[in-house]
Amino acid sequence: MNYSSYLQLNQLLALQQPASPCSEHRNENLFIITHQTYELWFKQLIDEIHQAIDLIGAGEIPAAIEVMIRVNAITQTVVNQITVICTLKFHEFQRFRGYLGTASGFQSYQFAGIEALLGKANSKKLQQYLDDDIQQSLAVIVRPISLWEAVRAQLMQMGDPAQSEKEVIKGMLERPSCESLLLNQLLDLDSLLQEWRYRHVKLVERTIGRRKGTGGSAGSDYLKSTLFNPVFDELWDAIN
Protein backbone atom coordinates (compact mmCIF):
# COMPACT_ATOMS: atom_id res chain seq x y z
CA MET A 1 0.00 0.00 0.00
CA ASN A 2 1.23 3.51 -0.81
CA TYR A 3 -0.06 7.08 -0.35
CA SER A 4 -2.15 6.99 -3.53
CA SER A 5 -3.78 3.64 -2.91
CA TYR A 6 -4.40 4.35 0.78
CA LEU A 7 -6.27 7.56 -0.05
CA GLN A 8 -7.84 6.04 -3.19
CA LEU A 9 -6.65 9.08 -5.09
CA ASN A 10 -7.59 7.78 -8.53
CA GLN A 11 -11.22 7.42 -7.44
CA LEU A 12 -11.19 10.68 -5.46
CA LEU A 13 -9.78 12.78 -8.29
CA ALA A 14 -12.26 11.29 -10.74
CA LEU A 15 -15.25 12.50 -8.74
CA GLN A 16 -15.19 16.00 -10.25
CA GLN A 17 -17.42 15.82 -13.30
CA PRO A 18 -18.31 19.30 -14.58
CA ALA A 19 -21.56 19.51 -16.53
CA SER A 20 -20.65 22.72 -18.37
CA PRO A 21 -18.59 23.15 -21.58
CA CYS A 22 -14.81 22.67 -21.25
CA SER A 23 -14.25 26.43 -21.32
CA GLU A 24 -16.02 26.68 -17.94
CA HIS A 25 -14.44 23.63 -16.26
CA ARG A 26 -11.85 25.57 -14.26
CA ASN A 27 -14.51 27.55 -12.40
CA GLU A 28 -17.01 24.71 -12.12
CA ASN A 29 -14.28 22.44 -10.75
CA LEU A 30 -13.68 24.99 -8.00
CA PHE A 31 -17.40 24.97 -7.23
CA ILE A 32 -17.58 21.17 -7.15
CA ILE A 33 -14.42 20.65 -5.10
CA THR A 34 -15.51 23.25 -2.55
CA HIS A 35 -18.85 21.56 -1.98
CA GLN A 36 -17.40 18.06 -1.99
CA THR A 37 -14.95 19.23 0.66
CA TYR A 38 -17.84 20.61 2.70
CA GLU A 39 -19.52 17.23 2.62
CA LEU A 40 -16.32 15.46 3.73
CA TRP A 41 -16.02 17.79 6.70
CA PHE A 42 -19.72 17.30 7.46
CA LYS A 43 -19.10 13.55 7.56
CA GLN A 44 -16.34 14.04 10.12
CA LEU A 45 -18.42 16.49 12.15
CA ILE A 46 -21.22 13.94 12.40
CA ASP A 47 -18.81 11.33 13.75
CA GLU A 48 -17.36 13.80 16.28
CA ILE A 49 -20.78 14.98 17.48
CA HIS A 50 -21.89 11.36 17.94
CA GLN A 51 -18.81 10.84 20.10
CA ALA A 52 -19.49 13.99 22.12
CA ILE A 53 -23.09 12.90 22.80
CA ASP A 54 -21.93 9.47 23.98
CA LEU A 55 -19.25 10.95 26.27
CA ILE A 56 -21.60 13.50 27.81
CA GLY A 57 -24.21 10.82 28.39
CA ALA A 58 -21.57 8.79 30.23
CA GLY A 59 -20.62 11.82 32.33
CA GLU A 60 -17.15 12.06 30.78
CA ILE A 61 -17.14 15.84 30.45
CA PRO A 62 -13.36 16.43 30.10
CA ALA A 63 -13.20 13.96 27.20
CA ALA A 64 -16.27 15.58 25.63
CA ILE A 65 -14.55 18.98 25.81
CA GLU A 66 -11.62 17.58 23.83
CA VAL A 67 -14.04 16.36 21.15
CA MET A 68 -15.80 19.73 21.04
CA ILE A 69 -12.47 21.49 20.54
CA ARG A 70 -12.04 19.38 17.41
CA VAL A 71 -15.64 20.04 16.33
CA ASN A 72 -15.02 23.78 16.55
CA ALA A 73 -11.69 23.53 14.72
CA ILE A 74 -13.42 21.72 11.85
CA THR A 75 -16.30 24.21 11.85
CA GLN A 76 -13.81 27.08 11.71
CA THR A 77 -12.27 25.42 8.65
CA VAL A 78 -15.72 25.19 7.06
CA VAL A 79 -16.25 28.91 7.70
CA ASN A 80 -12.83 29.84 6.31
CA GLN A 81 -13.44 27.78 3.18
CA ILE A 82 -15.97 30.35 2.00
CA THR A 83 -13.01 32.62 1.25
CA VAL A 84 -12.00 30.28 -1.57
CA ILE A 85 -15.39 30.12 -3.25
CA CYS A 86 -15.70 33.92 -2.92
CA THR A 87 -12.99 34.20 -5.58
CA LEU A 88 -15.68 33.04 -8.02
CA LYS A 89 -17.05 36.18 -9.64
CA PHE A 90 -20.69 36.75 -10.52
CA HIS A 91 -20.22 36.44 -14.29
CA GLU A 92 -18.04 33.33 -13.88
CA PHE A 93 -20.70 31.54 -11.85
CA GLN A 94 -23.50 32.55 -14.20
CA ARG A 95 -21.72 30.88 -17.11
CA PHE A 96 -22.18 27.40 -15.63
CA ARG A 97 -25.01 27.91 -13.14
CA GLY A 98 -27.63 26.70 -15.60
CA TYR A 99 -25.90 23.33 -15.79
CA LEU A 100 -26.54 22.67 -12.11
CA GLY A 101 -30.18 21.86 -12.80
CA THR A 102 -32.11 21.81 -9.52
CA ALA A 103 -29.05 20.91 -7.43
CA SER A 104 -28.77 23.18 -4.39
CA GLY A 105 -26.77 23.33 -1.19
CA PHE A 106 -30.13 23.46 0.60
CA GLN A 107 -30.43 19.76 -0.28
CA SER A 108 -27.40 18.73 1.81
CA TYR A 109 -28.87 15.99 3.98
CA GLN A 110 -25.68 15.79 6.04
CA PHE A 111 -25.99 19.44 7.08
CA ALA A 112 -29.68 18.91 7.91
CA GLY A 113 -28.61 15.93 9.99
CA ILE A 114 -25.99 18.01 11.81
CA GLU A 115 -28.60 20.64 12.71
CA ALA A 116 -30.83 17.90 14.13
CA LEU A 117 -27.89 16.33 15.97
CA LEU A 118 -27.08 19.64 17.63
CA GLY A 119 -30.68 20.17 18.72
CA LYS A 120 -32.18 22.32 15.97
CA ALA A 121 -34.22 19.69 14.16
CA ASN A 122 -36.40 20.90 11.30
CA SER A 123 -38.87 18.09 10.59
CA LYS A 124 -40.08 19.77 7.39
CA LYS A 125 -36.52 19.99 6.10
CA LEU A 126 -35.76 16.37 7.03
CA GLN A 127 -38.93 15.18 5.31
CA GLN A 128 -38.02 16.84 2.00
CA TYR A 129 -35.71 13.94 1.15
CA LEU A 130 -37.86 11.42 -0.69
CA ASP A 131 -34.98 9.15 -1.62
CA ASP A 132 -35.01 5.99 0.52
CA ASP A 133 -31.21 5.82 0.64
CA ILE A 134 -31.01 9.37 1.99
CA GLN A 135 -33.67 8.61 4.60
CA GLN A 136 -31.66 5.56 5.69
CA SER A 137 -28.53 7.73 5.94
CA LEU A 138 -30.43 10.31 8.01
CA ALA A 139 -31.66 7.54 10.31
CA VAL A 140 -28.00 6.71 11.03
CA ILE A 141 -27.00 10.37 11.50
CA VAL A 142 -29.82 11.62 13.74
CA ARG A 143 -29.79 10.36 17.32
CA PRO A 144 -32.78 10.07 19.69
CA ILE A 145 -30.99 12.55 21.97
CA SER A 146 -29.38 15.67 20.52
CA LEU A 147 -26.13 17.20 21.74
CA TRP A 148 -27.99 19.95 23.57
CA GLU A 149 -30.40 17.48 25.18
CA ALA A 150 -27.45 15.41 26.40
CA VAL A 151 -25.75 18.50 27.85
CA ARG A 152 -28.94 19.77 29.47
CA ALA A 153 -29.70 16.39 31.06
CA GLN A 154 -26.19 16.21 32.50
CA LEU A 155 -26.37 19.74 33.92
CA MET A 156 -29.81 19.27 35.47
CA GLN A 157 -28.62 16.06 37.06
CA MET A 158 -25.75 17.96 38.69
CA GLY A 159 -27.66 21.16 39.50
CA ASP A 160 -29.83 22.19 42.41
CA PRO A 161 -33.33 20.64 42.00
CA ALA A 162 -34.81 23.80 43.50
CA GLN A 163 -33.43 25.94 40.67
CA SER A 164 -34.93 26.49 37.25
CA GLU A 165 -33.15 25.23 34.16
CA LYS A 166 -32.03 28.76 33.32
CA GLU A 167 -30.64 29.26 36.82
CA VAL A 168 -28.72 25.98 36.68
CA ILE A 169 -27.18 26.81 33.30
CA LYS A 170 -26.32 30.36 34.38
CA GLY A 171 -24.71 29.06 37.55
CA MET A 172 -22.65 26.53 35.60
CA LEU A 173 -21.43 29.24 33.24
CA GLU A 174 -20.37 31.51 36.10
CA ARG A 175 -18.34 28.92 38.04
CA PRO A 176 -14.91 27.69 36.83
CA SER A 177 -15.56 24.04 35.98
CA CYS A 178 -15.46 21.48 33.21
CA GLU A 179 -19.16 22.10 32.67
CA SER A 180 -18.49 25.79 32.11
CA LEU A 181 -15.78 24.96 29.59
CA LEU A 182 -18.15 22.63 27.76
CA LEU A 183 -20.92 25.24 27.63
CA ASN A 184 -18.49 27.81 26.28
CA GLN A 185 -17.45 25.36 23.57
CA LEU A 186 -21.13 25.18 22.57
CA LEU A 187 -21.33 28.98 22.48
CA ASP A 188 -18.23 29.04 20.28
CA LEU A 189 -19.77 26.47 17.95
CA ASP A 190 -23.04 28.39 17.71
CA SER A 191 -21.14 31.61 16.96
CA LEU A 192 -19.21 29.88 14.19
CA LEU A 193 -22.40 28.49 12.66
CA GLN A 194 -23.98 31.94 12.70
CA GLU A 195 -20.88 33.41 11.09
CA TRP A 196 -21.03 30.68 8.43
CA ARG A 197 -24.66 31.55 7.68
CA TYR A 198 -23.85 35.25 7.36
CA ARG A 199 -20.89 34.66 5.07
CA HIS A 200 -23.01 32.25 3.02
CA VAL A 201 -25.63 34.97 2.55
CA LYS A 202 -23.00 37.40 1.28
CA LEU A 203 -21.59 34.72 -1.03
CA VAL A 204 -25.02 34.08 -2.54
CA GLU A 205 -25.66 37.79 -2.95
CA ARG A 206 -22.44 38.25 -4.90
CA THR A 207 -22.92 35.19 -7.11
CA ILE A 208 -26.67 35.19 -7.89
CA GLY A 209 -27.93 38.53 -6.56
CA ARG A 210 -31.65 38.45 -5.71
CA ARG A 211 -32.38 35.55 -8.05
CA LYS A 212 -34.07 32.37 -6.83
CA GLY A 213 -31.88 29.45 -5.75
CA THR A 214 -31.33 26.55 -8.13
CA GLY A 215 -33.33 24.29 -5.82
CA GLY A 216 -36.35 26.62 -6.00
CA SER A 217 -35.70 28.47 -2.73
CA ALA A 218 -35.93 32.25 -2.42
CA GLY A 219 -32.14 32.42 -2.58
CA SER A 220 -30.52 35.13 -0.46
CA ASP A 221 -33.89 36.19 0.97
CA TYR A 222 -34.40 32.71 2.41
CA LEU A 223 -30.84 32.59 3.77
CA LYS A 224 -31.30 35.99 5.43
CA SER A 225 -34.28 34.56 7.33
CA THR A 226 -31.94 32.01 8.95
CA LEU A 227 -29.55 34.65 10.32
CA PHE A 228 -29.26 35.32 14.04
CA ASN A 229 -31.16 32.13 14.73
CA PRO A 230 -28.98 30.26 17.25
CA VAL A 231 -28.98 26.52 17.75
CA PHE A 232 -28.63 26.65 21.53
CA ASP A 233 -31.38 29.16 22.34
CA GLU A 234 -31.64 28.19 26.01
CA LEU A 235 -27.91 28.58 26.50
CA TRP A 236 -27.88 32.12 25.08
CA ASP A 237 -31.01 32.92 27.07
CA ALA A 238 -29.22 31.96 30.30
CA ILE A 239 -26.58 34.63 29.63
CA ASN A 240 -29.13 37.41 29.22
Write a structural description.
There is one protein chain. Helix content is 69%, strand content 0%. The protein is an all-alpha fold and 240 residues long. The model has no long low-confidence stretch (mean pLDDT 90). The radius of gyration is 20 Å and the shape is globular. Helix 3 (25-57) runs antiparallel to helix 4 (61-80), helix 3 packs parallel to helix 7 (109-118) and helix 11 (165-174) packs across helix 14. It has helices spanning 3-7, 9-13, 25-57, 61-80, 82-85, 90-97, 109-118, 123-126, 132-141, 147-158, 165-174, 178-208, 220-225, 233-239.
Please, what is the oligomeric state?
single chain
The count of β-strands is: 0
The structure class reads mainly alpha
Distance between the termini: 56 Å
Helical fraction equals 55-70%
Which descriptor suits the 3D outline? globular
The chain-level mean pLDDT equals 90
Stretches where pLDDT is under 50 for at least 5 consecutive residues are none
Largest sheet: none
Radius of gyration: 20 Å
Q: Helix segment count?
A: 14
SSE string, helix = H, strand = E? HHHHHHHHHHHHHH
Estimate what percentage of residues fall within beta strands.
Answer: under 5%
Please give a quick description of this structure.
By secondary structure, the chain is mainly alpha-helical.
What are the SSEs and their pairings?
Layout: H1 3-7, H2 9-13, H3 25-57, H4 61-80, H5 82-85, H6 90-97, H7 109-118, H8 123-126, H9 132-141, H10 147-158, H11 165-174, H12 178-208, H13 220-225, H14 233-239
Helix pairs in contact: 3-4, 3-7, 3-10, 4-12, 11-14
